[in-house]
Amino acid sequence: MKTFTLDEILTLYKKKDPTELFKAAWDTTTANHGESVYLRGLVEFTNKCVINCQYCGIRRDNKNVNRYSLESETIVDVCLDGFNKGLRTFVLQGGEDRDISVKDICQTVKDIKRKTDNEAAITLSFGSRTLDEYKLMKDSGVDRYLLRFETSDQELYYRLRGMPLADRLKNLEDIRTAGLQVGSGYMTGLPGESEETRINNALLSRDLELDMVGIGPFIPSDETPLAGSVQEPIDYAIKGTALLRLLLPKAHIPATTAAGSLKPTGREDMIKAGANVLMPNLTPVSVKKDYLLYPGKICLDETGTQCIGCMSMRVKSVGRKINFSRADALRLMNGKI
Ligand code: 5AD
Ligand code: SF4
Ligand code: FES
Known about the structure:
41% of the residues lie in helices and 13% in strands. The chain is built from 13 helices and 9 strands. The chain has helices at 6-14, 19-33, 72-84, 102-115, 131-139, 154-161, 165-177, 195-207, 235-247, 257-262, 266-272, 285-288, 304-317; strands at residues 36-39, 41-46, 89-94, 121-125, 144-146, 181-188, 212-217, 277-278, 321-323. The strands form 2 sheets. Strands 2-3-4-5-6-7 form a 6-stranded parallel sheet. A 3-stranded parallel sheet has the order 8-1-9, with helices on one face. α5 links the parallel β4 (121-125) and β5 (144-146). α2 packs across α9 (235-247). It is globular and about 50 Å long. The two termini are 16 Å apart.
């Protein structure tokens, strides 16, 4: 399998016609991950958040959000249901909800682990936490943690989140120190971002040696201070996927819901550009519409089961196969797929 130097990768990325870039990314994906697109069940367990990100529809100051948090039993049931349908990995995602203690969510994880004979891999994603909290998660059986750095541009980061990027990077270091698999990522097309930012986003992901990198197009929401921002082309996210794949051949890269929301075949385009993960949304339909980070989000009326069916067709249409296995970080699997 051909490996590319940084110079070669950037030359491919900068070509006007991305055909060669996408082909290189596709071949690199096949060489490292086979024909599989792995499924991870997503459970959006709370939309409460103490943070006020300028871009996010469920930011603290948005009073038009019907706030919810799922009972522990509901989270466990949703995961067990997914487990019975074949899923072996679950992502419990939420806002930075300070009403739910880390201890409580760890107990929920222990329940899921016990009831699935330890077969299910669990990823948590609910904002910045302390090193001790990440360690508690690890001790409770949590496998992975997801925390996007959002943008590598320090000034832009500060403008959008009102705190330093360095803090976020420290969080990611803590996640690694605690022994969890590390997921991060960023948005493309943020107001004030440049092509240089997008390249730096991918380079930062490489430098952080991320196990998982999720990227998606920024979609302006009327419920935020960024209402009325320009919708930048989805191409930034698709080309970004290919760039990431070449820089991080072993990483798990999802074809994200935001891409599918901005363009009907956005996720397929991402797979063709090197993504190898899809995340069916298992959140109960009764609350799905309350987890609206951006407008036009897909899958709101469909159940997780319907999404799994829909995804298998989509994956087939681009010549890949869905795969239900845990798909841990490749660095933990001695190169075995
Ligand atoms: N458009 C696209 N993605 C968004 N996110 C938050 N708001 C938006 C938006 N308006 C992303 C952020 C966050 C992830 C959960 O969703 O990257 O980390
Ligand atoms: Fe909260 Fe995350 Fe939205 Fe920021 S992006 S406001 S941390 S849910
Ligand atoms: Fe959810 Fe298509 S993936 S409806």
